[in-house]
Every structure is written in structure tokens, then in C-alpha cells.
Amino acid sequence: MKGLIIIFFSLLLFVACKQQHQSNHTGVILIANGRMPSITKDGMEVIHIVYGTGDSIMYTSSNNKGISFSSPELIDSLKGLVAYATRGPQIAATRGGVAIIAVNKSGDIFSYVKDQTNRWIKTQRVNDADTIDKEGFLGLSSDNENNLFAIWTDLRNDHRNKIFGARSMDGGKSWQKNILVYASPDHNICECCKPSVVMKKNNVFVMFRNFLDGNRDLYMIQSANKGETFGKAQKLGKGSWALNGCPMDGGSLALNDKGSVQTVWRRQSKIYSCEPGGEEKIIGEGRGCGIETIGNKNIYAWSENGNIICLLPDGSTRTIGVGSLPLLKSVSGNEVIFIWANDTRIESYVLHL
Q1: Rounded to 5°, angle at Cα 253 from 27 and 343
Q2: Are the C-beta atoms of 50 and 37 separated by less than 8 Å?
Q3: What are the angstrom distances between the C-alpha of 183 and each of 209, 228, 232, 317, 321?
Q4: Is the separation of the CB atoms in 181 and 131 below 8 Å?
Q5: What are the pLDDT digits (tens) for 196-239?
Q6: How far is residue 221's CA from residue 263's CA, in Å, rounded to a whole number?
Q7: H-helix or E-strand containing 322?
Q8: ∠ at Cα 194 (69, 218), nearest 5°?
Q9: Pick from 53, 67, 21: which is nearest to 345 by CA?
Q10: Whole-number Å distance between alpha carbons of 270 and 239
Q11: How many CA atoms does the CB half-sphere of 332 hold within 13 Å?
Q12: Interatomic CA distance for residues 227 and 103, integer angstroms
């Protein structure tokens, strides 16, 4: 009997240790059940994640660099919430808290902020023309103060998809007049590829897949006045992708410590990286790629044959999980968290560089 008791408690200890291993820095953990997560980090090093499940906009956070996450909480129930196929709620950290935007199937974009008492408040509708984001693509970034810039695909006036945007100067409590960021002179922009946006000080950078002369290439456009006006769009890379269809893959961008824009995107089956004005470089094969910078070093991730692959600054690659659409966020000077979708599971992995 004594031997059986020892075996029993040994098994319990083994299970407990295994569970702990699955929730530490070196293991893949389940964050929540849901779809299309978006991630940000605030000035206190807290990681914030928003995602969708059904009509529910859900939120979770980590105050220990991704070792564990809080119990999911409901932000709001938005009828017809769009949260599939790279479309979903977007999140950004501000000096005063966290801001979120989400779109419904009618094409209206709604805004939420978390106040000082940790309550979620639904604020102002972002789009000032009714039901214009029928494709459901969104992007959101902040300057880590209280300035935000939101982007989306917009059908107003001519029923052709283009990039529109709006500024908030109070952390998402109100939104200014919508402005045209870019319209293709040829056709739509690429209809089913998610645009991206990053903001730093006065600069706003928007990346999107264009549709010009039959080519589905990535372009970037910049504002130097917090999104009040934008300059001329610039093609990324030297090559082109002639395609009579949409690849449903918009790539990602980030800013390094020098303020230089770093991009990663897909052309055919190849993953490319480049800086604006420079030549693209093949870094792998797959789709659904993301990027983060730590200091002036780039870390990339993408999905290939159902696996999440990351490329590290030393040139080595590593398989870190199973799924698609990886997102990256630095959690310290030598750590980065990856989150991705594994069917209806949102999973994460923290990597020590």
C-alpha cells in the first residue's frame, strides 16, 4: 500500500511539473480559445491581447512577460463582429491605457478604451460615413502617448477599396475627420490583404498591397504630421507579382531604434524582407509573416506547411509551434513573444535570444 501511495504522489508531481513546463518561458502555452488576436505592450511592460469569438470582443493580459495570462474578459458583444481571415479587432497601448477598434459585417468601426478603473468604455464610432469597411480590414497604432492612428479598407464614393484613416488625440475617446490615405489610380487596392500601420512621434507609416498594372505588390506611404496628411506611396522591393487574384497576405512592418522602417511580406511562395528603397531579400518560404525589432535586430516569423517558423538575428531558423498568422512583440531586451492561431486556439511562445 505504501508503495502505491508513493507511485500515486509521484504521478501527481510529474503531471504538475509537466503543466508548469507548458506555461513557462520555453514552452508553448494556450492563451485562450478564439480567433484573430492582436497584441500590444504598454510602458509598464504589460502585454495586452484582444481577439474575437463569435460576436464577443475578448481581452487578456500578462504582467510577467508572457509567462501567464489573465482570465479572458468580455469587452463588448458586437453583433456581426468580423474576426476571421486576418480580419479582427486591433489594439494599441497609450499613455493613459489601452484602445481597441473593431468592425462589424455591416462595415462600421467601433472604438473602446480601458479607463483608470479598468472598465471598458465604448466611445465614438471611427468611420464618419456609414458602412464603408465591407472587407473588414483594420490597423491601429499609437505613439505610446495619447495619439492614435487607425486605418481600414474603405468603399465610400466610388465603391472601390482604398485606404482611409483617422486620428485620435485623446487615447481613443474621440476620432477626427476621416482622411483618404491612398487610392489606386488603376483599380482597387488589393481587396483581401490586411494593411498595417506603425506610429512613432510625428511619423505614421502605412503598408498595404496595391493593385497596379495587374501586379499585387506591397507599397508604403508615410505621414510626417501624425496622420494629418500623407505623401506619395512607394513600392517595396524591385520585383513584381503579376496575379489575377488576391493572395490574402498583407505582410507586416516595424520600426527599429533608429526609426528605420523594416518590412516583411510574401511574393508567390517566398517570404521577403526589405527596407523602403532597398532591394528585397528572400528569407524563407511560406505565408502570413510578421516582424519585430529589438534594438536594431530583426526577428521574423511565418507559417510554412502548418508550422510556425522564426528567423533569428544570427540567421538561424527555429520551429516554435503549429498554426498560422504569427505576431511578434518584444518583452525585454533579449526576449520576444510570438502569438498565433492554431485553429480556434490562441497560443504563445516566449523566446530568449
Answers
A1: 45
A2: yes
A3: 12, 16, 11, 37, 38
A4: no
A5: 999 999 999 999 999 999 999 999 999 999 999 999 999 999 99
A6: 13
A7: strand 317-322
A8: 125
A9: 53
A10: 12
A11: 12
A12: 21
Collapse the DSSP code of 269 into the 3-class scheme (helix H, G, I; strand E, B; otherwise coil) and give the result: coil
For residue 263, give the nearest of 304, 295, 292, 227 by alpha carbon: 292
Could you count the other beta carbons within 10 Å of the beta carbon of residue 1?
Answer: 5
Q: Which three cell numbers stand for residue 88?
A: 479582427
Residues in Cβ contact with 294 at an 8 Å cutoff, skipping those fewer than 6 apart: 330, 333, 334, 336, 353
User: How is residue 178 written as a grid cell?
Assistant: 476621416
The pTM for the full model equals 0.91
Neighbours of 256 (CB within 10 A): 16
Residue 17's H or E segment, with its range, is: helix 2-22
Q: Residue 118 has what pLDDT? A: 86
pLDDT for residue 150 is more than 80: yes
C-alpha cell read off for 64: 510577467
d(CA 131, CA 159): 11
